[in-house]
Design goal:
heterodimer; A: about 350 residues; alpha+beta; BirA Bifunctional Protein, domain 2; seven-stranded mixed sheet; rod-shaped; B: about 775 residues; 6 domains; 20 helices; elongated
Chain lengths: ~350, ~775
């Protein structure tokens, strides 16, 4: 095939027209193939330059290359225009309703007593405490006698017990027996918390249940002081409830501590002014004291060389305060509408 | 304990406002629960007696009460219906004032009403607005009500059980004196010479009575006590009865010693015997009830029979009443355990028993009798004639020594020795000081202080715990294996939450009937029974967590929340042959499938098995195996034991339909329970890297069709045997049952991974092994192979 200048002109005119009217990027790509591809018109024309007489070949070559460059420019420019036009209408073309939100992936929820215990453990692990456990079916020695609560002691009034196995054993009424068991099996220094279920024959109401949860703390070492107990309580309460809370320490009485104290945290609702949720601006959170020398002895620790402090708090009470739960009974009911709030 | 501020001021000159007073008492361990202002703002309200009641013509809401506050009778229209003829009521006469409201004669349906009868809330004396305030019979008609209820502030205190000495106004006055450094004026009474009459009282049970002080007062005139005394009793929550009885109560509320007054002439042979009751002995008590006693109970008897349950309640027969002229006063110190036991078995707690069971000092009884006898002389005209004081073992309170260093070592703050001594002295301790040591003898009304720590507590609570610095224990933290088990708990919980299972905490106490049989075969058959259950459906300790979880599924289904998925990590109680109770840690999962029949349940069952295997995989090095098994409470064809090294450690399966029927739970349920500590066996999972294979392996899938109850486990075992050393891994891919296969047939797909360490396996080599396996399965299980 031979090529003449007129052919090149015709190709140019046709190409300019078709590029200028290409409707979209796909049409433009097709056009590029038609013109510049391996079998394209212009490619064919260039290949035909070999048959052009030698004296005209240089001029025809220059014409053809110039046309090729022009077409490439035109294609690129048209492509830019078409892309710009497409991006302009992208929002309409590909609109999606972004307020239709599917539910998050369903997960299981952990029990609030687990969550509060996790927080308690995290706080005390930062202070170097270990977790100790003790049996829930206890004997009277560990639950009462070793803690200075003999038969007919008035403190037993508040701890009416469930007995099992023909009265030989009982369900522990508090986590304090773990103090004795741990001292009997470990030498000081001791630094533990002991969480778990406790049982009392209490009538059930929004703040009482026959099964509830406590955690006990015990520290025994040389030179342990009430000021250490106070600092520990403050660290714990502010870590759990927030650094702006005030802590109040008052005198109290427990048979197994001497001196005995109780701790309250300022109410988060009324900020200590007094409201229906608190008692005069304060929320009682735990009882505590310096371990009674006889209790140390009962645990096999010499009170002349060691001293200790102990504290006990209701895990369910802390969970009620922290998570705004109004009824203790919800914890053991396991209604999923309750559980899935945590 | 109710404390009248007016009364308290008899003994201590309280200067601070009541809020500060309450705050300091609370900090020192005597919590003030409530402050009630008896803020009486009325004039011209008097006591009146109801003489008659008749309807108000034309009204169903109101009635006419004829009332008398003196010689005349007036008619008053009232809307209250809690009235009876003879009642004493507050009567606002015409011209009287309630707050800023003037009361006049007013006409109701044409009937003039001369003033009005008042409720507690109208007078500011309480919250009860439902009816007219009914006064006690001690109130005299015509008397100004402000004398019955003077302006006062009532503190409601919570007294700790070791401080029975604070259950009285004088006790609180001493605390206030110590806290605010004020002197306390103790009441005194003149002590006339009285003949000692040893024969008046005989103690037959000295182990139950530490001291008995008796006094005979003759020539007494029983009448109402004076208004000031009645007002104080009312403020402290005790109803006035008569002068003699009121005096005994007054002395108790003043100084803490409960007392009893007998009509002496009604005591057979004129003497008192303190003894244990005869088994089954009956006594008619002051509250109108007859009680049957046992030989454990202490009584105060005359020559013949019990006239009072010692330290708890008096008898009706010898009660002081109108016309009584000779009064025998009793102030005794009873053994606290005996009182507590009797009060508990009788189900009766009184002002007296709640004091005695905490252990009162025997030092209180003689001054109390002196005081009461003197008051009777003053207010009821009596004369003390005979007296007795049986006190075999007088009180000895040894001194306690504590050093300044010790105080500092316990409290963590240096209390100046002078300040420490001052605090104890203000608490009525006798103090001796010598270089750094304090010797303190407790006052005779306090039995609770015996060791140095008791002194430190007294010093600490009065010094103020708010003045103790806040420190943390020193740096000798023990380093032991912190939380290994706890971490496993957390991992298991997270895995289960990720499998869409919610965490439950169920009651340890379960019903011994019902679904209690469900559980793993390893659990002992019999339950640990509660000897004294509170409810029939909570009469045993759980051996499995599953009954509680299944109950929770049923509860949720009833609450319109079908399809609950719950797990619990808790403790079971396994009865041992001895009296010992084993407490294994258990993990249980229960999933409700509301409908969808067998297929949905088997899919959930497979998923549950995978969940158990996943938890195990996260916790332990070992893998989890299942073995077809039967277990009580589970579907006979759809349950398996969970194995650890061939030993059963749990159960997984579909819950038996009969179990669900007992729970009234529609649909189906699948459940698993495993010994949690065995789940972690093999130790904490620490990844151990192996070299990567140097030569490519070959993977072949194998699908076989089997008929009948053939366990995949058995197939896998044969495959493994025949696979030789190049067969590295077998996994179960899928299970299919369907009409194309025919009834009872299942197709099982396995994936087999072949690998050699020293060469690239050839296809021919693997095919030979694969064929050997296929032949073996055909032979052993009549399996058809579809590859």
């Amino acid at each position: 095939m031979s090529v003449n200048v007129g052919d090149l002109d015709a190709i140019g005119v046709d190409a300019r027209r078709r590029i200028g009217t290409a409707a979209d990027e796909a049409a433009l790509n097709q056009l590029r193939v038609d013109l510049l591809g391996k079998k394209g018109l212009l490619t064919g024309a260039l290949r035909g330059l070999g048959s052009v007489p030698a004296d005209q070949r240089a001029a025809a070559g220059a014409r053809a290359n110039a046309l090729k460059a022009e077409i490439e420019n035109l294609l690129a420019s048209r492509a830019r225009d078409l892309q710009a036009a497409r991006l302009e209408t992208l929002g309409d073309e590909e609109w999606a309703d972004m307020t239709f939100v599917p539910s998050p992936v369903r997960r299981g929820h952990l029990h609030p007593l687990t969550l509060i215990l996790r927080e308690v453990k995290a706080i005390f692990s930062r202070l170097g405490y270990e977790v100790a456990l003790g049996p829930q079916v206890e004997d009277e020695f560990h639950n009462f006698e070793a803690l200075n609560i003999p038969q007919e002691h008035p403190a037993r009034d508040t701890m009416d017990s469930f007995y099992v196995e023909a009265d030989h054993l009982l369900l522990r009424t508090h986590t304090s027996p773990v103090q004795i068991r741990y001292m009997q099996s470990h030498k000081p220094p001791i630094r533990i918390i002991a969480p778990g279920a406790v049982y009392r024959r209490d009538a059930t109401d929004p703040s009482h249940a026959s099964q509830f949860y406590q955690f006990e703390g015990l520290v025994v070492d040389h030179d342990i002081r009430l000021s250490d107990l106070k600092g520990t309580i403050e660290y714990f309460a502010r870590s759990l409830f927030g650094p702006d809370r005030r802590i109040r320490i008052v005198g109290d009485h427990f048979p197994f501590t001497e001196p005995s104290i109780a701790a309250a945290v300022s109410c988060g609702i009324c900020a200590g002014a007094g409201c229906r949720s608190c008692k005069g601006g304060w929320l009682e959170i735990l009882g505590a004291g310096m371990v009674h020398p006889q209790v140390l002895r009962n645990g096999g620790v010499d009170p002349d060389h060691y001293a200790g402090f102990a504290f006990g708090a209701g895990l369910d009470r802390l969970a009620m305060l922290k998570y705004n739960v109004s009824d203790l009974r919800l914890f053991l009911e396991n209604d999923v509408r309750f559980l899935r709030q945590f | 304990m109710l404390i009248s501020l007016n009364w308290l001021k008899d003994y201590v000159d309280v200067q601070v406002d009541v809020t500060t007073l309450a705050e300091r008492l609370t900090l020192a361990g005597n919590e003030v629960n409530r402050i009630h202002e008896q803020d009486v703002d009325f004039e011209g309200v008097v006591v009146a007696e109801i003489k008659g009641l008749r309807p108000l013509p034309g009204s169903t809401k109101n009635q006419i009460a004829s009332v008398s506050a003196g010689p005349t009778v007036a008619d008053v229209v009232t809307g209250a219906w809690n009235l009876a003829v003879g009642d004493r009521v507050p009567y606002a006469v015409p011209g009287s004032r309630l707050n800023d409201r003037r009361i006049e004669t007013k006409s109701f349906l044409g009937v003039p009403s001369a003033g009005m009868l008042c409720s507690a809330v109208e007078l500011g004396l309480g919250e009860d607005a439902a009816g007219i305030l009914i006064l006690d019979q001690g109130a005299t008609p015509g008397e100004d009500l402000r004398r019955l209820y003077p302006r006062d502030t009532i503190l409601e205190l919570e007294i700790k059980s070791n401080r029975p000495d604070l259950l009285c106004h004088l006790g609180i006055a001493r605390e206030v004196g110590a806290l605010f450094n004020l002197s306390v004026k103790e009441p005194t009474s003149s002590k006339p010479r009285v003949a000692d009459a040893r024969d008046l009282v005989r103690i037959d049970a000295p182990d139950g009575c530490r001291r008995f002080v008796g006094r005979l007062v003759t020539g007494v005139t029983v009448a109402p006590s004076p208004p000031w005394m009645q007002a104080r009793l009312r403020a402290a929550g005790v109803r006035p009865i008569s002068n003699v009885v009121d005096i005994t109560n007054y002395v108790m509320l003043e100084a803490g010693q409960p007392m009893h007054a007998f009509d002496y002439l009604r005591l057979k042979d004129g003497r008192v015997v303190v003894r244990r009751a005869r088994e089954g002995e009956e006594i008619a008590c002051l509250d109108g009830k007859a009680r049957r006693l046992t030989s454990h109970d202490m009584v105060v008897a005359d020559a013949e029979r019990a006239q009072g349950v010692a330290g708890i309640i008096g008898g009706a027969d010898s009660a002081v009443q109108k016309g009584t002229t000779e009064v025998f006063l009793e102030a005794a110190t009873w053994e606290p355990r005996s009182i507590r036991r009797t009060a508990r078995t009788l189900g009766l707690r009184t002002e007296a028993s709640s004091r005695f069971e905490k252990g009162l000092s025997p030092a209180l009884s003689l001054p109390a009798v002196d005081r009461a006898a003197a008051l009777i002389g003053e207010l009821a005209g009596g004369k003390q004639t005979r007296s007795t004081d049986v006190y075999p073992g007088p009180l000895k309170l040894p001194s306690i020594e504590v050093s300044g260093d010790r105080i500092e070592r316990v409290l963590g703050v240096r209390v100046q020795p002078a300040e420490a001594a001052g605090i104890l002295e203000r608490l009525h301790f006798s103090i001796e000081r010598s270089d750094g040591m304090l010797r303190a003898r407790p006052p005779d009304f306090r039995l609770d202080c015996t060791i140095p720590e008791d002194l430190v507590e007294e010093i600490g609570r009065v010094y103020g715990y708010d003045r103790v610095p806040s420190t943390l224990p020193g740096e000798r933290t023990p380093v032991r294996d912190l939380y290994q088990r706890q971490d496993a708990d957390e991992i298991a919980r997270e895995v289960l939450a990720g499998r869409e299972v919610d965490e439950a905490v169920t009651n340890s106490l379960v019903s011994s009937t019902g679904t209690s049989e469900i559980g793993m075969p390893a659990a002992p058959r019999s339950l640990v029974r509660i000897d004294n259950p509170m409810a029939e459906n909570r009469d045993a300790l759980r051996r499995s967590l599953l009954p509680g979880l299944l109950e929770a599924l049923a509860l949720n289904a009833r609450q319109d929340q079908p399809g609950a998925r719950l797990f619990e990590l808790g403790w079971g109680f396994w009865k041992q042959a001895t009296e010992f109770v084993d407490e294994p840690r258990l993990l249980a999962i229960a999933i409700h499938i509301p409908s969808g029949g067998g297929d949905a349940a088997s899919a959930e069952l497979r998923a549950l098995q995978a969940t158990v295997a996943t938890v195990r995989d996260r916790l332990a090095v070992a893998s989890t195996d299942f073995r077809q098994a039967e277990a009580s409470g589970f579907h006979p064809g759809r349950s398996a034991e969970i194995l650890d090294g061939g030993e059963p450690i749990g159960i997984v399966g579909e819950v038996h339909p009969a179990t669900l029927a007992r729970l009234d739970l529609p649909g189906r349920a699948v459940a698993a329970e495993v010994l949690f500590d065995r789940l972690t066996a093999g130790g904490e999972r620490t990844p151990q890297a192996r070299p990567l294979p140097r030569f490519p392996g070959v993977r072949r899938d194998l699908t076989v069709v089997v008929r009948g109850k053939i366990a995949s486990n058995d197939l896998v075992q044969v495959i493994r045997q025949l696979g030789g050393y190049t067969l590295r891994d077998i996994s179960m891919l899928s299970e299919y049952q369907g009409p194309q296969l025919g009834a009872g047939a299942r197709s099982l797909s396995f994936r087999l991974q072949y690998q050699a360490d020293d060469r690239t396996l050839t296809n021919e080599e693997v095919s030979t092994v694969q064929q050997r396996i296929i032949d073996g399965l055909k032979q052993r299980f009549a399996a058809e192979v579809r590859s």
